[in-house]
């Protein structure tokens, strides 16, 4: 029985013997070989399906850690800003911890599935007439001025929890990948993976380090611009972020690993989302496909080393944002009477 990331990787995590460790079963997610992607890019591609976590995104790894810390420190309330998945995860883990949870969301820019999660778990939802960056500014000030625990990825326990994904990829492959590919928004995840790969390497559990390849939406690509941008825009609302909180850690992950952070268009993201669903069999929300879009772009540019071992993280479940997925498709249903022959005819039997 998988015991959750805090128990499974306790020695690598900053928790004391007597600490209560929460779990909703997070972590232990599938690393799926993707022959369709491997054939397209000429390398060995494995997809880390983080939409399989309890609340449907990778955020659960970091949230179980930050929430456990908060609980053991006697906190009674937590706060976070979110584009949706952090708040969904914070709401669920606050419930598991018996803490109250306030979430700050950019008005009108959050996928319905994520909103539903925060609501059903009883979080206090506050919609801000601004974007994620404005929400994070408020959350930081609330944390500084009031007895609430901030559980955004500025909280080091978030990155500590999220680094376990790098452990799992290395354990599953029996080695570190040559390249790790993932989307970049607030930039906590790329920083956490790099931390995890380095820790495994320093512990002698792997004998190499991957290049970290991060991808942003072209309309929300501060790392590509080289500075924060004020009006990020993308259909991938989860990464519609202009002022990443983990800027310096992400730059260290990019440069320290000999990697890159580049941009892909919304169309490339939607095409990658479609490819994952139609050719690999994995349904992800748009932002989650940004890494795959970037890998395809690198391949088109001849930048993918032949035969390389590549891990790509897809970060959130497609069920979070079915409106965007369905808006890309012809929905005229095939309707038939209650008639077997009619069904057989439609199917072409
Ligand atoms: C599906 C999905 N994919 C990628 C990212 C980017 O990860 P980071 O670069 O670590 O921010 C997010 C981020 C979401 C939030 O920042 C939030 O929920 O507030 C996400 O939900």
Summarize the structure.
This protein has 349 residues and is of the alpha/beta class. The chain has helices at 5-8, 35-41, 59-72, 85-97, 112-120, 132-145, 156-162, 164-173, 188-202, 222-225, 247-256, 266-280, 290-300, 322-327, 340-347; strands at residues 31-33, 44-49, 77-81, 100-106, 124-128, 149-150, 179-183, 211-217, 260-264, 309-314. The mean pLDDT is 97.
Structure description:
- 42% of the residues lie in helices and 15% in strands.
- The longest helix has 15 residues, at 188-202.
- It is globular and about 65 Å long.
- It contains 15 helices and 10 strands.
- The protein has a 6-stranded mixed beta sheet, sandwiched between helices. A 4-stranded parallel beta sheet has the order 5-4-3-6, with helices on both faces.
- The model has no long low-confidence stretch (mean pLDDT 97).
- Strand 4 (100-106), helix 5 and strand 5 form a beta-alpha-beta unit.
- Helix 3 packs across helix 7 and helix 4 packs parallel to helix 5.
- The protein has 349 residues and is an alpha/beta fold.
- The structure holds ligand AN7.
- Residues 57, 59, 82-86, 153, 183-189, 238-239, 285, 287-288, 315-316 line the site of ligand AN7.
Q: What is the count of DSSP helices, taking H or I runs of 4+ residues?
A: 15
What is the string of SSEs from the N terminus onward?
A: HEHEHEHEHEHEHHEHEHHEHHEHH
* Largest sheet strand order: 1-2-10-7-8-9
In this entry the ligands are: ligand AN7
Shape type? globular
Structural category = alpha/beta
Percent of residues in beta strands: 5-15%
- End-to-end separation in angstroms reads 44 Å
Report low-confidence residues grouped into runs of 5 or more: none
Radius of gyration: 20 Å
Q: Mind describing the biggest β-sheet?
A: 6 strands, mixed
């Amino acid at each position: 029985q998988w015991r959750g990331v805090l128990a499974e990787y306790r020695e690598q995590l900053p928790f004391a013997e007597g600490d209560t460790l929460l779990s909703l079963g997070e972590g232990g997610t599938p690393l799926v070989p993707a022959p369709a992607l491997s054939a397209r890019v000429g390398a060995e591609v494995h997809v880390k399906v983080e939409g399989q976590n309890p609340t449907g995104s990778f955020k659960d790894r970091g949230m179980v850690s930050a929430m456990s810390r908060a609980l053991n420190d006697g906190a009674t309330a937590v706060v976070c800003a979110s584009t949706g998945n952090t708040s969904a995860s914070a709401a669920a883990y606050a419930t598991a911890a018996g803490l109250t949870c306030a979430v700050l969301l950019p008005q009108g820019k959050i996928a319905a599935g994520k909103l539903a999660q925060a609501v059903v778990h009883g979080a206090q939802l506050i919609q801000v007439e601004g974007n994620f960056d404005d929400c994070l500014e408020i959350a930081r000030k609330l944390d500084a001025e009031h007895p609430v625990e901030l559980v955004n990825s500025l909280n080091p326990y978030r990155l500590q929890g999220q680094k376990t994904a790098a452990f799992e990829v290395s354990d599953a492959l029996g080695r570190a990948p040559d390249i790790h590919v993932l989307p970049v928004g607030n930039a906590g995840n790329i920083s956490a993976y790099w931390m995890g790969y380095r820790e495994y390497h320093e512990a002698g559990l792997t004998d190499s380090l991957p290049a970290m390849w991060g991808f942003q939406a072209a309309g929300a690509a501060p790392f590509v611009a080289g500075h924060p941008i004020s009006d990020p825009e993308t259909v991938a609302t989860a990464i519609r972020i202009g002022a990443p909180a983990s800027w310096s850690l992400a730059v260290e992950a990019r440069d320290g690993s000999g990697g890159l952070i580049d941009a892909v268009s919304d169309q490339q993201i939607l095409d990658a989302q479609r490819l994952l669903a139609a050719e690999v069999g994995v349904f992800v929300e748009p932002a989650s496909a940004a890494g795959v879009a970037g890998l395809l772009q690198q391949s088109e540019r001849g930048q993918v080393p032949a035969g390389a071992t590549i891990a790509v993280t897809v970060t959130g479940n497609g069920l979070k944002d079915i409106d965007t997925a369905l808006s890309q498709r012809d929905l005229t249903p095939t309707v038939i009477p209650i008639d077997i022959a009619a069904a057989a005819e439609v199917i072409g039997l």
